[in-house]
Specification:
Strand content: over 45%
Order of helices and strands: HEEEEEEEEEEHEEE
Strand order of the largest sheet: 4-9-8-6-7-5
Number of strands: 13
Radius of gyration: 21 Å
Shape: globular
Distance between the termini: 35 Å
Largest sheet: 6 strands, mixed
Structural class: alpha+beta
């Protein structure tokens, strides 16, 4: 076999592998449970051809003391968050688990940090400062779920950024992240919903 033939076989094998990866990703995205999460922030950052953006949702900062399940996590630990759909069709966390749950819709991620708050100086409901600190026992967990980074065109990223700064009278910005959750819980971003209008990313 000539060197040219060997290079051709290597190129063919690499193409086949990439094709398999794309098809596998498409199947996982199409067959997973679709959920939507409210987007709290969107930080567009310039890259070569478009924008690399950081998305913030309620999943990134979890109050383990307010949620069911486990709270003994350390940095780097896997974390599974069981989600339930609310009246507005947006999903929210209800329990935390160190191992994969046997049932329910859940998302899989990793713990970035865990710390305990023993005093608070503001009212958690109103945000108003308190005359004196009160003792609490809040366990805060910062986690990531591979949904915090999103690549968008420059126009779309800046449009999202402007839209997320516009709030209605209820304090909502009308932007939600659309995810697909396969059985593993490893989320795949499908697109966004803006004021009820879906914008699904095309795979090709």
């Amino acid at each position: 076999m000539t060197a040219l033939s060997r290079l051709g076989l290597i190129a063919l094998a690499m193409t086949a592998f990439l094709g398999f990866m794309v098809i596998d990703h498409a199947n996982a995205r199409a067959s997973g449970t679709e959920i939507v999460l409210d987007v709290r922030g969107y930080d567009p950052r310039d890259i070569f051809l478009g924008h690399f953006s950081l998305i913030r949702t309620d999943l990134q900062q979890l109050d383990a003391s307010e949620l069911d399940g486990d709270d003994s996590f350390e940095r780097g630990d896997p974390i599974y968050v069981v989600l339930e759909r609310g009246d507005d069709d947006s999903w929210a966390p209800v329990s935390l688990h160190a191992t994969r749950p046997d049932s329910g819709v859940f998302i899989h991620g990793f713990v970035g940090s865990r710390y305990t708050i023993e005093q608070e100086w503001t009212d958690p409901e109103t945000g108003e400062p308190l005359a004196e600190a009160r003792r609490v026992n809040r366990i805060q967990i910062h986690a990531s779920f591979n949904i915090e980074r999103y690549y968008a065109s420059r126009e779309m990223a800046l449009d999202f950024d402007r839209r997320l700064r516009s709030f209605d009278e209820d304090g909502n910005n009308g932007v939600r992240l659309i995810l697909s959750l396969p059985p593993s819980g490893d989320a795949i971003i499908k697109g966004f919903e803006i004021d009820g209008v879906r914008r699904i990313d095309r795979l090709w």
